[in-house]
Design goal:
The complex is a heteropentamer of chains A (222), B (540), C (533), D (634) and E (101). The longest helix of chain C is centred in the middle third of the chain and has 34 residues, at 165-198. Helices cover 73% and strands 3% of the residues of chain C. In chain C, a hairpin with a 4-residue loop joins β1 (70-78) and β2 (83-89). Chain C has a two-stranded antiparallel ribbon with strand order 1-2. Chain C is globular. Chain C is built from 22 helices and two strands. The longest helix of chain D has 50 residues, at 5-54. Chain E is an all-alpha fold. Chain E has one domain (5-88): Orthogonal Bundle (Helix Hairpins). Classes of the chains: A mainly alpha (222), B mainly alpha (540), C mainly alpha (533), D mainly alpha (634), E mainly alpha (101). Chains B and C meet through α16, α17 and α21 of B and α1, β1, α4, α5 and α6 of C.
Chain lengths: 222, 540, 533, 634, 101
């Protein structure tokens, strides 16, 4: 089937797939979380490549910018910040039967999905419900923009709520607890007297790094 | 839809029917507004103020839902905003349920916040925003909107679960919830992708329409997507075997949050689940019904059986909530209008029971929110009789004792199941209810027994002595009306006599309301059942 | 079915004790203890006596006629669910209502809990639920009341019971609750089949009785219903909660459990099984008859080996309810009527037995026959009361127990000869264990402790006197009762006959036989060939 | 005046009620007089009623008095009604008469008893029940009386309940009767099933429509009941134990009246019985077998009352023999005569016992004729009567029975004859031991401080006790002589004709045969007497003549205990401990435990490790996926 | 003629599985998060593939929203990690098991 595609397309697909899978296995198999993060970047990049290959140029850009640029950086930041970058001994698995079962499940699930694909046992849906993806005058960016502001207007607005929560959540979580953190056995006790000072909370729309940013200041001050 | 694209280059923004999303807007706007107020407030915003604003917001959302209801009654159900949301009886019922739940939960958390002194209005904000997510799920008419609602609700809940930074359990609960929640979200998204691929759209009516018009040569893709969607939903509503997070999270989360979570997450999850499966995948019901049947059985049995051996009351109620999820699944499995109605009714009544129960648990837990062992409930009837009585009513209602809403809810779902020919499932459900009754009764019994029971003195020939008198000190039936009627004075009545500490009025209001609804509509079911009867999906 | 009256007697009958329960619970705790106890006492007793008066009024207004339901009230209660507040009495329920109404005031007084706020409120609530289940003509309404009884009883056992009370209470609750699980599903299924046929969702018994059900579904539904009823009654082998519950329950609780609540099970069988599933009833009659007979013999045999008086009475109760089952599934006028009469009689008898045993316990601190000796010497009146109840229990003619047992056995003999013959031996066994226990507890010379036991006080005597008188009266002159029960039973039996195409033996109905005081009658001998197993 | 019939049983019942309400206040002896008066009144009413009946023409001597409808259900319509006919009136007359005498006797006998009023309470109730039994106009009403006398017997046997043996004996009596009553009940069912009525007249009107097998079944079932009540094989062991009751009770209930109820019942159903030859044979055989067996046992008993008890059993056997041979009138004759002389014997024995401070052992009596002349004198009549010495009542009655047996079943006649010899033997033995020989009672009285004081000597009974003794002695003598058919116009027994029907009883014997048979009877009786009297007045201890097998009544009690009692107890224990506790309750608790166990097991899945939870989700997801994909595949 | 969609879909399925397995076998919470990102990417790839196969821009729009959700999740998730592991040395997911049973 690959042969029926043009050589370039095939090459790009194979290249992208290799990066993606290599990165993915890298994430899973890296003992060092930092390495894992970097491997993740590879995967994300590979996905972006395949996006482009499928004429999703805008998404490819967003993929690289948001994912690789922001999210992975955030990961790295937290890894460094918490100092949890110790090596993980992948050879041992404290939970019995975890790995064999995981492998078995993966094989089973994958077998199902892939078998469906290879057998061609799936019918795909109707064409062009929201709007054509190809051959648009303004390219995929305009098509996507049109879709987002018409058909997907409400979801688009709803993402605002999502971001608000992200911000508030990060703030709440990052705030230092005012009292001790009792273990389960001595849970309870008197609430500490001092009230935590409320963090200044901006009404930022998308400042996804706001929370940790504040945190950094505090931690450093300590 | 095509007319949108008629004029190339000109963007035809769809008309926004603000009424359709009014509850969402109110909850969301209220949350953000509260955030703003607290930021602008010169000092720490007192919890009462946060509660007040939150309650107002919730009440406004409730009013908005009522307006929606009038609208639906007058003009019939309709879709809005480019078909992304739907306004029908079912969605209105869900948004009312969510509004009321968040209102009650705010009352409860007010008490908790004051006692634990864990800071500002973020709790209320998160609750409001989370509630908005649940409302979105209820009115979502597109898989992606479902997903977004689910995420809005869940992400807020992750944070809420971890809200009490002083308790390790809270953090652990939050993280576990988050890891597993995101994992299930990923599965869910993958499911969306497959369904999208199989049908070419993510819009629910369009999916139904596509399935109605086309005979799929191979259903593999579609059914795989359906399975994965089911996994995502089942996770949210804590159906076995996707329930594993539930006990840990319920136990670890701050108690008011647990109540809130139990009510909201179930409501939102089931709302979307019912809509997606019954209206979009209705034609596939013969395919997914057996799966749901199995899941429901597992859920019913496991929920009741494992709860038997719990000593932590919160954890026990977590398992009980799993059991309840099984009951709601009966409504889904029926996949009929009656089933949807029954499920809606069940969710509606359950939210009162569960919020009320956790309100009492919040109070009993005491400072530090840690006293959740069954032993902590021993003799509660003496320390604060009305509290014990209220919990008794709520637990009995959960057990399905007659003349409570809990019974009618079970009756409704069982009716739906039987009506759809799932008699065996109905029987299993009722048997599980009987098992469940045991652990509810155990709590009740513990509350009403003073000293450790005189064990071993079995009457093998009249050797037994008449029991010392740990006697229930009130009549169950009355609790509701009494506590409502006496709400102003109830503060002192409810007061823990041992400590002389009055119970905050917030919790009193919440508990009274929950008990009142549970009993009132148990005795006089007509209004609520008629109301639930309106919970119709736009397409079935 | 006629709406005889504008005044809703039955609704008031149910709501009066419920309302009194509410008021009782609202008696404030703050006031002076004596005043509070007095208020509670007056409330509890007053309400139960008022209920009794109302029940007597109902009975007085009841006209047997064709045996249909009387004093019917029918209001829609939950329209979406098809539930209606449909109440009515016929001959079958009338006397159960009366019996319950008679016993509750007594229970208020004998428990040692008069003046206790919680106990009184629970009891009143229980009374409402018991009466409700006897007069409910809507299946869900019945189920509601049927289940509602569990809660007060649970609390009464748990709060006021004896050493092992919590085990007994929870066992009772769970067991019966579990049984009800099947009942609920069965009820709903019937209603849906009816809806499927008529397009009308209703749980109304009268409406549902016209539902056409296939044999297979009848059998399944019958079993679902009957399991719940069998647990409640209890019918062998679903009885093991009862010895525990009866033994651990306080005196009044045991009285209500055994005398009133047990009847809800057998009443349910008669009222619902026979009405809704006639074919299954006929087909499965041998099974149920066998269970009844086994219950009769087994209860008696186990009772023989029991030294605990309360448990002994529990097992005897199993045997007695076996008679009710037997009579019911005999499906003859005599059998079913006998079953109904037996229910009432057993209620009265076992009430006296439990009350007296409670008094024995008060006096001697035990109810084990091995711990008692020679009670008759110091307490002859107490012994006398016990003797009367015991004699009634073992079916001595002239006391009420005999009428029911005789009718049951006779009615059974007409259709299922050998079951009746075997069951008749249960009568012997009843004498065996009762007399044996009596001899243990009451005969011989008393030891020192027992010799000092006081006899019944005047108050106690006055409490049981009405019951003893009723026991004697019903034994001598049961006609007023039988005249009201029989038409309703005949109606029911006719319903079964019509639905299944079977025929009650001509002898039982007595319609085809000309009848004179001289007893000259014409019998078609050919009919006898169809009789018997 | 015949309409006053209901007063017959209402009077004792009223006595019962009065005594129940105020017996304690009346006290000793007023309560006794109240009891006696009501029964005497009852006797008077009986006489009046009988006179009324006699006033009617022979075949129409039948009067039905309906009091009220008792159990009306569908086709069943049982009335509380009395049937006054010659048979029932015969019974009623002698029941009330003997009862009145025994009540009178009891006033003296029971003097000083703790529960004096209660005794008369029970006695009155007994008389009322007995009259109900006799007068009932339908099977069920008869059954009421039947059970009523049973329960009164229970109370009276266990009257001295302080003695465990008395309490047990009462229970035993009741249980044996109860067991037998199963037959009665089933017979009632069968009768109703076949005829649709329980009224005697109605049943008899339809006798012909009852199939023969059912007829036999009905008869045998009723005979089973009768065998219990009348202590026939194999149900007689209770009667000997019943002697634990006060002696007047033994005299009234266990000799004169209640135990004869079985005979009465069989006579009552004679229209059915007469049509069933198998049943007749069974009745006769069982009767004669019982007569013989009981007589042999009677030969070896030491307890004076037990000898009398077995003799009662034996005599009842004769009565059944008569019933079985169709000689109902003979049965009734013997019953009445037996009532007189056996009551006499019991009361005499009671007098002896009374005089010896409650000593009942024959071996500790002796030579009492010296000390209790009146008792002795009256006792002689009873003794000779039962022994069959002419011209006392026993001779005629027994002769009548044997004559009929001779005609119908010669083999049975022979057994009956042997029994007659035994009867004479054991009664003479008793008399010899009690009234002749040495004063063996001296050490007994010395050892026991009784009401007579240490070392006191036995003496005759007080006057209230003496009067009945004398009256009954006279009746034992006269009863037989007067009833003889002295001339055709004087045939008191023929008035039973309408009840039994002439066709059923016809001896077919010539005058000569009658004389010969009578002679044989006399010789046999004298033989028994002649052997026993010298033998036992000389020496009280003759172990060789009292084998254990007879002393212990053929070990029947032990056999029952081994065959029924102990296995029964084991079964009960097994049912209670193993079946109920372990299996049924165990299953219930096991289900509970299973739920708990599975709960405990399943909670182990909840390890707290988030990765394992994820694995759970994956497994579930893969499972669902596999299920769905599999559906798509197929 | 480009590569057939099936290949992309299979690739996405493999990626999804690898992510899932990673979540199951890794103890480091952050790496677990990364695995979730892998799974989300697999979903995105699927969506884009379908978008191309169906010539429908809707699929790409969905990807857009998934991206936003992923971002929000990561923020909160990392916030949680920070809150919990701030004072712990080298904590792993396995160390969190106070709550169990």
């Amino acid at each position: 089937m690959l042969a029926s595609a043009t050589a370039v397309d095939s090459a790009v697909f194979v290249f992208g797939a290799m990066i993606i899978l290599g990165g993915a296995f890298g994430v899973v198999l890296s003992r060092n979380p930092v390495h894992a993060a970097l491997m993740l970047v590879a995967t994300l990049f590979g996905v972006a490549v395949l996006f482009i290959e499928q004429q999703a140029n805008f998404l490819a850009a967003v993929q690289v910018i948001v994912y690789a640029g922001a999210i992975v950086v955030l990961f790295l930041f937290v890894i460094m910040f918490l100092g949890v970058d110790r090596l993980e001994n992948l050879a041992e698995e404290p939970l019995p039967a975890q790995r064999p079962l995981a492998a078995a499940m993966a094989v089973l699930g994958l077998a199902g999905l892939v078998a469906l694909g290879v057998e061609g046992r799936w019918s795909v849906g109707a064409h062009q419900v929201v709007g054509a993806a190809r051959g648009q005058s303004g390219g995929d960016v305009e098509a996507l923009g049109r879709a987002v502001f018409t058909t997907y207007l409400f979801p688009f607005e709803a993402t605002a709520a999502l971001l608000v929560i992200a911000v508030v959540g990060a703030v709440v979580l990052a705030r230092r607890p005012s009292g001790r953190m009792p273990g389960p056995s001595e849970a309870g006790g008197e609430p500490a007297g001092a009230q935590p000072s409320p963090l200044p909370v901006g009404e930022g729309e998308d400042s996804s790094s706001g929370g940790p940013g504040e945190l950094e200041v505090e931690e450093v001050a300590r | 839809m095509t007319e949108l694209f008629a004029a190339a280059g000109h963007l035809a923004i769809p008309r926004i029917s603000y009424l359709s999303i009014m509850p969402v807007l109110i909850l969301l706007g209220g949350g953000v507004g509260l955030l703003g107020i607290s930021a602008l407030w010169p000092r720490q915003l007192p919890p009462s103020a946060g509660t007040a604003v939150g309650v107002l917001v919730a009440a406004a959302a409730l009013v908005a839902s009522l307006v929606q209801w009038v609208d639906v009654s007058n003009h019939g159900p309709h879709v809005a905003i480019a078909g992304a949301v739907v306004q029908d009886g079912f969605s209105v019922l869900i948004s009312m349920l969510v509004s009321i739940s968040v209102l009650l939960a705010l009352f409860v958390s007010d008490t908790w916040l004051k006692r634990e002194r864990v800071g500002g209005p973020e709790l209320q904000v998160l609750m409001l925003v989370s509630a908005s997510g649940a409302v979105i799920m209820g009115e979502a008419n597109d898989l992606i909107v479902v997903f977004l609602g689910l995420e809005i609700m869940s992400i807020a809940l992750y944070v809420l679960a971890a809200f009490n930074a002083r308790r390790q359990e809270s953090g652990e609960a939050g993280l576990k919830y988050f890891v597993l929640g995101s994992f299930s979200s990923a599965v869910f998204v993958y499911g969306i992708a497959l369904v999208y691929g199989a049908t070419g759209t993510s819009n629910l009516p369009q999916i139904a329409d596509y399935l109605a018009r086309n005979v799929l040569l191979h259903q593999g893709l579609l059914l795989a997507g359906v399975a994965l969607l089911l996994v995502g939903f089942a996770f949210k509503v804590a159906a076995v075997p996707f329930h594993l997070w539930t006990p840990d999270v319920y136990q670890g989360a701050p108690t008011p949050v647990t109540g809130f979570m139990a009510a909201i997450a179930k409501a939102g999850g089931f709302a979307a689940l019912l809509r997606v499966f019954v209206s979009s995948f209705g034609l596939l019901r013969s395919d997914w019904q057996p799966a749901v049947w199995l899941v429901a059985v597992l859920t019913l049995v496991l929920g009741s059986v494992v709860a038997l051996v719990q000593r932590d009351v919160k954890r026990m109620l977590a398992y009980s909530s799993i059991n309840h999820a099984g009951f709601v699944l009966l409504g889904l499995q029926a996949a009929t209008a009656r089933g949807v109605e029954a499920a809606a009714y069940y969710l509606f009544t359950y939210s009162f029971m569960v919020v009320g129960s956790f309100a009492v648990i919040t109070l009993v837990a005491g400072p530090g929110d840690a006293a959740h062992d069954l032993e902590n409930y021993r003799g509660l009837s003496r320390r604060s009789p009305w509290l014990a009585l209220s919990l008794t009513v709520l637990l009995l209602s959960q057990a399905g004792v007659p003349f409570t809403t809990g019974f009618l809810a079970k009756l409704e779902v069982v009716s739906a199941a039987v009506g759809a020919g799932s008699d065996a499932l109905a029987v299993i459900a009722m048997v599980s209810a009987a098992i469940a009754a045991f652990f509810y009764l155990r709590v009740v019994f513990t509350m009403y027994s003073g000293a450790p029971a005189t064990a071993g003195a079995h009457v093998d020939g009249g050797g037994g002595m008449p029991a010392e008198l740990p006697r229930p000190s009130g009549a169950l039936l009355l609790a509701a009306d009494v506590s409502v009627a006496q709400a102003p004075t109830a503060v002192s009545v409810l007061g823990e006599q041992g400590t002389g500490q009055p119970i905050p009025s917030g919790a009193v209001v919440a508990i009274s309301l929950c008990v009142a609804v549970t009993v009132l509509f148990g005795v006089w079911p007509a209004p609520l059942t008629s109301f639930a009867h309106l919970a119709r999906l736009i397409i079935q | 079915m006629t709406h005889d009256n504008a005044f809703p007697f039955l609704t008031v009958l149910v709501l009066l004790p419920a309302g009194a329960a509410l008021v009782t619970a609202l008696v404030p705790d703050g006031i002076d203890e004596r005043l509070r106890r007095l208020a509670v006492h007056v409330l509890g007793l007053g309400a139960s006596l008022a209920t009794l008066a109302l029940a007597v009024t109902v009975a007085a207004r009841y006209r047997a006629g064709n045996g249909g339901f009387r004093l019917v009230t029918d209001h829609i209660w939950a329209p979406q669910l098809g539930i209606s507040w449909h109440l009515g009495v016929d001959g079958i329920s009338l006397f159960l209502v009366l019996m319950a109404a008679v016993l509750f005031p007594l229970v208020m007084l004998v428990g040692g809990w008069s003046g206790d706020k919680a106990a009184t409120a629970w009891l009143l609530l229980l009374e409402a639920a018991c009466l409700g289940s006897f007069v409910a003509l809507d299946l869900i309404l019945f189920f509601l009341f049927f289940e509602l009884t569990l809660v007060p009883v649970y609390f009464l056992i748990n709060g006021w019971g004896f050493a092992n009370r919590s085990y007994a209470a929870i066992k009772f609750f769970l067991y019966t609750f579990l049984g009800s699980a099947f009942l609920l599903v069965g009820i709903v299924a019937v209603a849906f089949i009816h809806e499927h046929q008529t397009g009308h969702l209703t749980f109304d018994l009268v409406a549902l009785s016209s539902t056409r059900l296939g044999t297979a579904s009848q059998v399944i539904l019958f079993l679902a219903f009957t399991v719940a009823f069998a647990v409640k009654a209890p019918v062998f082998p679903f009885h093991t909660w009862s010895p525990d519950a009866y033994a651990e329950a306080p005196t009044g609780g045991a009285v209500v459990l055994a005398a009133v609540m047990a009847k809800m099970g057998t009443y349910g069988i008669i009222r619902f099984d026979l009405t809704l599933f006639p074919r299954a009833v006929v087909d499965l009659a041998p099974l149920l008859l066998t269970l009844g007979v086994v219950g009769i013999l087994y209860g008696a045999i186990v009772a023989c080996a029991t030294r605990d008086l309360k448990r002994l009475v529990a097992y005897s109760s199993l045997a007695h309810l076996g008679f009710v089952v037997l009579g019911t599934f005999a499906l003859t006028t005599q059998g079913v009527t006998g079953g109904v009469v037996q229910m009432v009689n057993h209620g009265l008898i076992i009430a006296v037995l439990f009350i007296v045993i409670g008094w024995i316990y008060e006096r001697r601190g035990t109810w084990s026959t091995s711990g008692l000796r020679g009670l008759q010497r110091p307490a002859p009146v107490l012994a006398g009361v016990f003797t009367v109840a015991m004699m009634a229990a073992l079916g001595l003619p002239g006391l009420n127990g005999f009428v029911g047992e005789f009718l049951v056995l006779l009615g059974t003999f007409l259709t299922h000869r050998w079951w009746a013959v075997v069951a008749t031996f249960g009568v012997v066994l009843a004498a065996l264990y009762l007399l044996w226990a009596y001899q243990q507890a009451f005969h011989s010379e008393p030891d020192e402790q027992t010799a000092a036991v006081p006899d019944l006080t005047w108050r106690q005597g006055a409490l049981v006197l009405p019951l003893v008188l009723i026991i004697v009266f019903l034994g001598i002159y049961p006609k007023p009762v039988l005249d009201r029960i029989t038409p309703s039973v005949q109606r029911l039996v006719e319903h079964v006959d019509q639905a299944t195409g079977t025929h009650e033996p001509a002898v039982a109905r007595g319609t085809t036989v000309s009848h004179t005081t001289k007893g000259s009658r014409i019998l078609v001998t050919a009919q006898h060939d169809t009789v018997g197993p | 005046m015949i309409h006053a019939a209901f007063l017959m049983f209402l009077l004792p019942l009223a006595g019962f009620v009065v005594l129940a309400l105020s017996g304690r206040r009346l006290g000793d002896p007023l309560a006794g007089w109240v009891g006696t008066a009501t029964v005497t009144g009852s006797f008077v009413v009986a006489c009046i009623t009988a006179a009324g009946l006699l006033g009617m023409p022979g075949p129409a001597r039948h009067f039905d008095q309906t009091l009220f409808t008792w159990i009306p259900v569908g086709g069943l319509n049982v009335k509380a009604a009395l049937l006054v006919d010659p048979l029932s009136m015969t019974m009623a007359l002698f029941v009330t008469g003997v009862s009145a005498l025994i009540h009178l006797y009891s006033i003296g006998y029971m003097k000083g008893d703790r529960d004096y009023p209660k005794f008369f309470l029970y006695m009155n109730l007994f008389v009322a029940s007995m009259l109900l039994l006799v007068l009932g106009d339908n099977l069920l009403f008869t059954f009421v009386g039947w059970e009523g006398v049973g329960v009164c017997s229970y109370w009276l046997v266990a009257f001295w309940f302080g003695r465990p043996s008395a309490a047990s004996a009462g229970k035993k009596a009741f249980l044996y009767n109860r067991l037998a009553d199963v037959g009665f009940l089933v017979a009632i069912f069968l009768v109703f099933e076949r005829t649709g009525t329980l009224q005697y007249q109605g049943i008899f009107a339809h006798v012909s429509s009852i199939d023969p097998a059912s007829r036999t079944a009905i008869c045998l079932l009723l005979f089973a009941a009768a065998a219990g009540k009348s202590a026939q094989l194999p149900l007689f062991p209770w009667l000997a134990d019943a002697m634990e009751g006060p002696t007047p009770v033994s005299a009234l209930i266990h000799a004169a009246t209640m135990v004869t109820a079985g005979v009465y019942l069989m006579c009552r159903i004679n229209p059915i019985l007469g049509l069933s030859h198998p049943a007749q044979l069974v009745v006769a055989s069982v009767g004669v077998a019982t007569a013989f067996v009981a007589a042999t046992i009677g030969c070896a008993q030491q307890d004076i009352k037990k000898v009398l008890a077995y003799s009662t059993v034996s005599q009842l056997g004769y009565m059944f023999l008569a019933v079985g041979t169709g000689a109902y009138e003979a049965a009734i004759f013997l019953m009445v005569a037996h009532a007189f002389f056996k009551a006499e014997l019991f009361l005499g024995a009671g007098s002896v016992i009374h005089g010896l401070d409650d000593e009942q052992d024959l071996k500790r009596m002796g030579n009492l004729r010296r000390w209790m002349p009146l008792t002795f004198a009256t006792f002689i009549f009873g003794w000779l009567a039962i022994a069959g010495i002419p011209p006392l009542a026993g001779f005629w009655a027994k002769g009548d029975v044997l004559d009929n047996a001779y005609v119908r079943f010669p083999a049975l006649w022979f057994v009956g004859l042997v029994t007659a010899a035994l009867t004479a033997y054991y009664m003479s033995r008793l008399s010899a031991l009690a009234f002749w020989g040495d004063d063996r009672w001296r050490d007994v009285l010395k050892a026991r401080p009784g009401q007579h004081g240490q070392g006191a000597e036995p003496h005759d009974a007080p006057r209230v006790m003496a009067v009945p003794l004398v009256v009954l002695a006279v009746l034992s003598f006269v009863g037989g002589v007067l009833l003889l058919p002295w001339h055709p116009g004087w045939a008191p027994l023929s008035w039973l004709g309408p009840v039994f029907g002439a066709r059923l009883y016809d001896a077919h014997l010539s005058g000569t045969s009658l004389w010969v048979l009578g002679l044989v009877d006399t010789v046999v009786a004298l033989g028994g007497l002649g052997v026993a009297l010298p033998l036992w007045s000389a020496q009280a201890h003759r172990p060789e003549l009292e084998p254990a097998v007879l002393q212990r009544s053929y070990f029947l009690d032990d056999i029952y205990d081994a065959v029924i009692g102990r296995p029964g107890q084991a079964l009960a224990r097994f049912s209670a401990v193993v079946v109920d506790n372990r299996i049924i309750d165990g299953a219930v608790n096991g289900v509970g435990r299973l739920a708990r166990l599975s709960g405990t097991g399943l909670r182990r899945v909840q390890t707290g490790f988030v990765r394992q939870y994820a694995l759970g989700i994956v497994i579930g997801a893969v499972g669902l996926l596999a299920f769905m994909v599999a559906r798509a595949w197929s | 003629m480009s590569v057939p969609g099936g290949w992309y879909l299979a690739l996405a399925a493999i990626l999804f599985s690898v992510g899932a397995v990673g979540l199951l076998v890794r103890r480091n919470v952050l790496v677990m998060f990364m695995c979730i990102e892998l799974m989300l990417n697999a979903a995105n790839l699927t969506l884009v593939t379908f978008s191309r196969m169906l010539d429908d821009i809707g699929g790409q729009a969905l990807v857009f929203f998934v991206l936003v959700v992923a971002a929000a999740e990561v923020v909160v998730g990392l916030g949680l990690v920070v809150a919990i592991f701030r004072r712990r040395e080298n904590a792993t997911a396995d160390d969190l098991h106070i709550l169990k049973g």
